[in-house]
Amino acid sequence: MTQPTANATNQPKTHSKTTFETHTFNHTATELDSFAPRILNWFDNNGRHDLPWQQHQTDTPNPYIVWLSEVMLQQTQVTTVIPYFQRFMTSFPTVQDLAKAEWDRIAEHWAGMGYYARARNLHKGAKQLVEIIEKTDDYPQTVEDWEAIAGVGRSTAGAIVAMGLHGYGVICDGNVKRVITRWAGIDDDIMKAATTKDLWALAARLTPIDAPIQESGHYAQAMMDMGATLCTRRHPSCEVCPISADCIAHAQGREMDYPVKAKKKPKPSKFSNALVIINPKNDILWLQRPDSGIWGGLWVLPLQFMQKTQGKTVLSSADEDAAFESENTLAEQIIANWMADNGLNARSLSHSLLDDAPIKHSLTHFHWYLQPQGLHITAVQAQALTQLLEKADINMTWLAADTAKATLGLPKAMLKVLDVVG
Ligand code: SF4
After folding, report:
1. 3-state class of 329 per DSSP?
2. Which of 124, 195, 252, 301 has most Cβ atoms within 10 angstroms of its Cβ?
3. Contact (CB, 8 A) for 126 and 120
C-alpha cells in the first residue's frame, strides 16, 4: 500500500480507501473517525509537553531537533536520552555543526548509549542533509525523501514529517503497534509482512488528514505518549484510557495477549576474551574498529574469539580457521599470531567468579560474553607489537584506562570490562 504523504503546503483533503490484508475489521467509521480526537484530547490534558525535543507547541518546528531525538529514541528510553540529547544540542546546535564534526567527537558524545550504528548514521545523515539543504535551501519535505537519509526508517520518517515539518506523516513504531493491535483486537503475528501491511494501513486511517496541518505532528506525539505512559507493555491503565470504550482487548479482558509475536529461536551467544595488554608505563593497547560492523569506528580492547553457540549447539570455535578469520578483526588476528609466536598467554584479571560468568553484552543479533584477560608486556615487546600493527595500517594507541575513558569513544561493553578490571 502506498502511504499518503504531503508536506506542510500540500495537504491531501480526503482519506484514501485502505484494504486490510488479513484482518476483518470490526470498528465503525464513527469509531475510526473519533479515535484521533479522543487521543488528542487525552494528550492535551495528560500528555508530556515538556520534553526538550517537542515541537508541537511551536509554529516553526525544527526538523533537525526531531530527527536527532527520533534516532536517539529508536532503542533507548526517554529518560536516558534527555541528557545525551542536551549534550548533542549544546555541542552540535545545527545539522551543519554535526556534519562537520570529527567522528571521534560524536562517538564520545554517544558513548554509553549503545547501538552505535545509530551514531554512525547520524553523522552520515547530517552530511546528506547538508548536501540537500545546500541544493534546495530546505530540509527534505516528504516521507520518501526522509527515508533516503541514513538510519531513517519508515516510522521515523513519518515522525519527522509530522513533528518536524507539521506535515502529514504516519508513525507505526512498537508503541503504536501495541496500542492499535489492542484497540482493534489484531491477533495475527505482527512479525508477518501481511500483518505489518495491515497495521500501517490502520495507522494511516487513524492519523488525522483533513485537520489543521499541525495536527498530524500533534497526533504522532500523542500516540507516542499513549504507548509510553498509558497503554504500556506490562501495566496498561485501561481505566483512564480515552479509547477503552471500544478497545477490543479491553472488552475481552486480554490486554496482555496483544500484540501477538511468534516466539523466536534463542539468540546465539558469542564468547570472547577481552585482552587488556599493558606496557611498562601502565598504558593499555586500544584498537579502532573498522568503520563497518559492530562498534564501527569506536575504540576497543583487542578481543579473542573463543566460540559461538546457540542453545547447547556449538556453531563455531576458535580452532576453526574460518571462524578465526571471520570472527576476529585483522588487528586481532595479528595480535593472536604474535602472542602465539612469542609464547605469550593472557591471564584472568578478574575475580574468579567471573570465569564462570563473564560480562554479558546483548546486541541485536547475539549476546556477547566477554572474559577480561590481562597481559603485561615489556617495552621491547610493546614496540614490536606496535610496529606490526602500524605496518598493517591499524589505528591503535596506548592509553591508561582513565584517559581512554575520557578521550576515546568506547562502547558500553568496554566500560563494563574496565569497571571489572579496576
Ligand atoms: S483500553 Fe487498555 S489495552 Fe485498550 S488501548 Fe486503552 S490502555 Fe490499551
Report:
1. coil
2. 301
3. no
Beta strand 367-376 with 269-278 is parallel
Whether 198 is in the pocket of ligand 1, judged by its Cβ within 6 Å, is: no
d(CA 261, CA 185): 14
Q: Which positions are catalytic?
A: 70
Domains along the chain?
29-257 (1.10.340.30), 269-421 (3.90.79.10)
Tell which atom from ligand 1 comes closest to the C-alpha of 248.
4
pLDDT, tens digit only, all 422 positions of the chain: 333 333 333 333 333 344 566 666 778 889 999 999 999 999 999 999 999 998 877 888 999 999 999 999 988 889 999 999 999 999 999 999 999 999 989 999 998 888 788 999 999 999 999 999 999 999 999 999 999 999 999 999 999 999 999 889 999 999 999 999 999 999 999 999 999 999 999 999 999 886 555 577 889 999 999 999 999 999 999 999 999 999 999 999 999 999 998 887 888 999 999 999 999 999 999 999 988 778 888 999 999 999 999 888 899 998 898 999 999 999 999 999 999 999 888 765 544 434 555 788 888 889 999 988 889 999 999 999 999 999 999 999 999 999 999 888 899 889 888 887 66
Query: What residues contact residue 163 under an 8 Å CB cut-off, 6+ apart?
Result: 54, 55, 56, 61, 66, 169, 217, 220, 221
- 8 Å CB contact between 415 and 300: no
Residue 243 beta carbon below 6 angstroms from any ligand 1 atom: yes
